[in-house]
Amino acid sequence: MECALGGGYVSDTALTRPLDAGFPSVPTLIRRRSDATLPPVSARSRELADELKQVIRLAGRDPEALEGALPALSRLHRVASAGALDEAERVHLILCRLIPEYLDRLPAGRDCRAIRELLTWEDGDGETQSLTTRYHKAAGHLVNAASDFGRRQEPRLLAECARRFIALDHEDRLAAAATAIAPAIAPGVAVAVEDPAPSPLPAIAGFDDPAAGIVRVHKNLDYHLLMDHMADAGEIVILNTWIPELNILADALVDALSRGTYVSILMLYPDSEIAQLRSDALQRTTQARFREDRVRPGVRDCLEVLAAISHTIDNDARRLLRVRLYHSLPSIAVYGVDDRTFVSLFLHGELAIRGVQVEILGQDTLMGRLVARELETLWDMGQQFHDLTRWQAEMDDMGPRFRTRP
Predict the structure, then answer these.
(1) 323 has which bridge partners?
(2) Rg for the chain (alpha carbons), in Å?
(3) Which CATH architecture has domain 2-19+209-404?
(4) Fewest beta carbons within 10 Å, which of 86, 188, 318, 390?
(5) Contact call for residues 70 and 95 (beta carbons, < 8 A)
(6) 3-class SS at 2?
(7) Domain chopping of the chain, boundaries
(8) Any bridge partners for residue 396, and if so which?
(9) pLDDT tens track for 205-222
(10) Residue range 321-331, pLDDT digits in tens
């Protein structure tokens, strides 16, 4: 039996617990975050990731093969400042000093724990661990890890490791520069430091008006930047037709839920005419013989990932995850962390995450209010899952409700 409750529907079993215990009635973005940015993936990080790929294969069984093969790692400040070293000494410094110390400085999180496993080629007894063993250990830290770990997870983890190592290298260089400057400054003497000239903002209306809420415009959705904001979020909200590459965010979502972060997700009802229209719009620039439906399978794949997340977390964390499907014209895509949102449009022939992202800060701003109002409207229209492990059956039940809604 089902009954109406606050505009939604719950089953008899769901009546034994609060539907939205601890949640606001609609998703909100509540807390200000620091205005940090990270560079996009560069040629330097790709080169470093390629070298790390060789390291995890050769460090334990044939380190001599790495001599002369690690130019990017050799350019890191900790190695370059060590002075004149022969190749064997340089490789030893990288393998036995630099990498272990950098691994210790990585932040907490599932990806970083998996990276540590990949780069730990000896166990506690000093015995070499095979790459297959390290794959299994790394996969144990991830959600819904693919069986073909080497092809699907390893490249992503090594790219993330390279980006983290470059950030740590910047910290080392800044620390060295500060140490070099310190003796030249007399104790008690105030030193005036000019702020660097701000980079010019694009000529878009609203950048010169803080009340508008626009912080910057990004070329596309930067997953690294998004996950860094998610690392200490109080609330995460995602609105899209479906969430391409949700598996990239899965581990960050598990960590967030385990910390007590509220997570609200809105996706388009996949069996609607609107879903088919959006799929058609994405195919406009594709030759007819290569066209395929993307929205319907995309939503279903996301629900599988969310079901895996639900299996991974405990009951308390599971109550913090809300997922609804909406049946309406898609308006904007939103990836929100506290009161910071990345907003994009649904254009023909282009995924929203691949298009321009407007970064907005503050719900009390002009753009912030617009986004919050749209989120509230679609949230009120949505039908909520009560048990994501039974998403197919619950979605089947949603169909008649969507067709008979007023």
Answers:
(1) 265
(2) 24
(3) 2-Layer Sandwich (3.30)
(4) 188
(5) no
(6) strand
(7) 2-19+209-404, 43-173
(8) none
(9) 445 555 678 888 998 898
(10) 999 999 988 88
